[in-house]
């Protein structure tokens, strides 16, 4: 694991060095030197007013992603509990899942306008599906013997879900949440590119329209940093939540 981590860091550092060296003498309007981009990134995003765009985007994400996760787990659990309903609506769920939320943006904007509620709704509508479907599939995959044992022990439905079903389905639920995280970040930006007056996506689009390519690149880099930071944070949480599940696998891989 440590060797793989070191190789990833070296690869990332190599890419940065190559970008720095190859772009050092660039006079291209579209591909300015990395040094110039980083200098402007500091001026705009660290000490400048562009930070407001970052906080605007993160605010929508901070509401939309948890809402999508909670709704996905809740609806998935209900469809598992009422399995006849779950099996009946499964084809519809998978049909709706394959419709890109971006294709629904014109209708969503027409109904909700271009304010914060629209951006949050877009994140929720796009990010709910991986968590919902993974929750449903994970709960359906619980060993029936474990459920029968819970019945023999006269466990209540709530306790069975809490102590048997959720732990058993948690690896798939976390996988769904990770996929939902990536979709939430993407749709956070897409909603700002299509219809918005604030946010990182709006900043990138507005800079491109003004032909301020260096500013545009700073927005892209900030977005990459934000997405990477959120992913690393999720991985840290996942390791805590799934410690019981990951520990045996880590031990096996290390032997």
TrEMBL record:
SUPFAM superfamilies: MetI-like. The keyword Magnesium does not apply. It is found in: Cell membrane. One of its GO terms (biological process) is transmembrane transport. PROSITE patterns: ABC_TM1 (PS50928). InterPro entries: MetI-like, MetI-like_sf. It is a multi-pass membrane protein. Keywords: Cell membrane, Membrane, Transmembrane, Transmembrane helix, Transport. The chain crosses the membrane at residues 58-80, 92-114, 120-139, 183-205, 217-237. GO terms for cellular component: plasma membrane. CDD domains: TM_PBP2. Residues 54-238 form the ABC transmembrane type-1 domain. Belongs to the binding-protein-dependent transport system permease family. This is ABC-type nitrate/sulfonate/bicarbonate transport system permease component.
């Amino acid at each position: 694991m440590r060797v793989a981590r070191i190789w990833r860091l070296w690869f990332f550092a190599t890419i940065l060095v190559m970008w720095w060296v190859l772009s050092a003498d660039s006079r291209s309007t579209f591909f300015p030197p990395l040094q110039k981009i980083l200098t402007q990134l500091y001026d705009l995003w660290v000490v400048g007013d562009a930070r407001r765009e970052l906080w605007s985007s993160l605010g929508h994400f901070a509401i939309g992603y948890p809402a999508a996760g909670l709704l996905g787990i809740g609806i998935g659990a209900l469809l598992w509990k009422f399995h006849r309903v779950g099996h009946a609506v499964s084809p519809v769920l998978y049909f709706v899942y394959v419709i890109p939320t971006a294709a629904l943006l014109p209708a969503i904007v027409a109904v909700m306008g271009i304010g914060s509620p629209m951006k949050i709704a877009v994140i929720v509508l796009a990010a709910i599906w991986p968590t919902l479907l993974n929750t449903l599939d994970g709960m359906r995959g619980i060993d029936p013997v474990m459920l029968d044992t819970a019945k023999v022990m006269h466990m209540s439905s709530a306790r069975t879900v809490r102590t048997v079903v959720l732990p058993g389905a948690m690896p798939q639920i976390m996988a769904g949440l990770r996929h939902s995280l990536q979709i939430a970040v993407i749709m956070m930006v897409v909603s700002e590119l299509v219809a918005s007056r604030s946010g990182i996506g709006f900043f990138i689009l507005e800079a491109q329209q003004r032909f301020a390519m260096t500013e545009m690149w700073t927005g892209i880099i900030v977005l990459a940093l934000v997405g990477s930071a959120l992913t690393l944070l999720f991985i840290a949480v996942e390791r805590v939540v799934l410690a019981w599940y990951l520990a045996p696998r880590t031990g096996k891989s290390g032997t």
